[in-house]
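In practice, a research group might receive sequence data for several interacting partners and want a quick structural hypothesis before committing to experiments. The following worked case mirrors that situation: the sequences arrive first, and a predicted assembly follows.
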Amino acid sequence: MELLKQKIRTAGVVLSDQVLKVDTFLNHQIDPLLMHQIGQEFARRFRDAGVTRILTLESSGIAPAVMAGLELGVPVVFARKHRSLILKDDLLTAQVYSFTKQVESTIAVAARYLSPSDRVLVIDDFLANGQAAKGLVSIIQQAGASVAGLGIVIEKSFQPGRAELEGMGLRIESLARIQSLEGGQVTFID
Amino acid sequence: MELLKQKIRTAGVVLSDQVLKVDTFLNHQIDPLLMHQIGQEFARRFRDAGVTRILTLESSGIAPAVMAGLELGVPVVFARKHRSLILKDDLLTAQVYSFTKQVESTIAVAARYLSPSDRVLVIDDFLANGQAAKGLVSIIQQAGASVAGLGIVIEKSFQPGRAELEGMGLRIESLARIQSLEGGQVTFID
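A structural hypothesis for the assembly, expressed as tokens:
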């Protein structure tokens, strides 16, 4: 998605060979118009995938997921990283390790929001080591639902997430695929 | 906003005289079309308020805030409740006590996303005791920016948040105002 790549080139900050900061439009400040266009692009790619529901992870996945949900006309569920007193339902959970934050957390979804008849599109902001994506896929499988695919805003293709998920037979659509962050430069896979 | 009230009547669950659960369309599962309409309604009410930026709080504020930002054509910033290794900037912070979760947390915004020339619309999912709203207002004031107003999806009008914020001279627009949850019934203020 050319518009997204342009935004990453102009507004992304390469913090190291491993870390790209996109706080100005995705992870802290959000560009709503870009999110709308991202939602339209996910919808275009998954229009024929029979999606009945979208699953994402708080917080940075919510904006692109809701825009995709608007375009596809399906509800969005976001997994929570922290339990709330008000969320006392039957929970489906998975353990997710964040290499960026260096912490393991439990992500949780109320069981009643996923049913065996659901065909679920996973949306997330980043795909790197694939930990969050695998946690979300595990939750979908625990519910007996099927995975329609994974829609990723930014993929760090030099990390092993995509290969592992493809090894599980999953379809992955990433709107920007980064080959390398070396030398402070963002190089995309075309 | 009549459509929102209908949704609360049909999909909301009254857990006690104090707690309304709206997990099916706002706090865990999200109804993207309703969020879009909520964003349009916020934009209609604040169209002439000179809004340059929207500030909300992760996670449930993000969907309505991004839809309002799309309609008003302004960026959205979400305050974080938990610090990330990647967010090491100069931070503006406030302490927020959650009566629902019975915990105090620090909310934080990177200082560079609010400037003294900003006129900031605060969007949040609920207004009850006003703790989150006051924390967000404090962060805006620390930045030297001005508050355009507060846009709230659901106000529990029997709790003191609105009165305290109005006492600070702030404009509040709540799309559904709940007078009472007594007897398991949602009663709205017209």
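Before designing any experiment, note the following. Chain B touches chain A at residues 15, 19, 21, 23, 25, 27-33, 35-36, 58-59, 62-63, 65-67, 69-70, 73-78, 80, 82, 84-87, 100-102, 109-110, 113 (CB under 8 Å). Chain B has one domain: 2-188.
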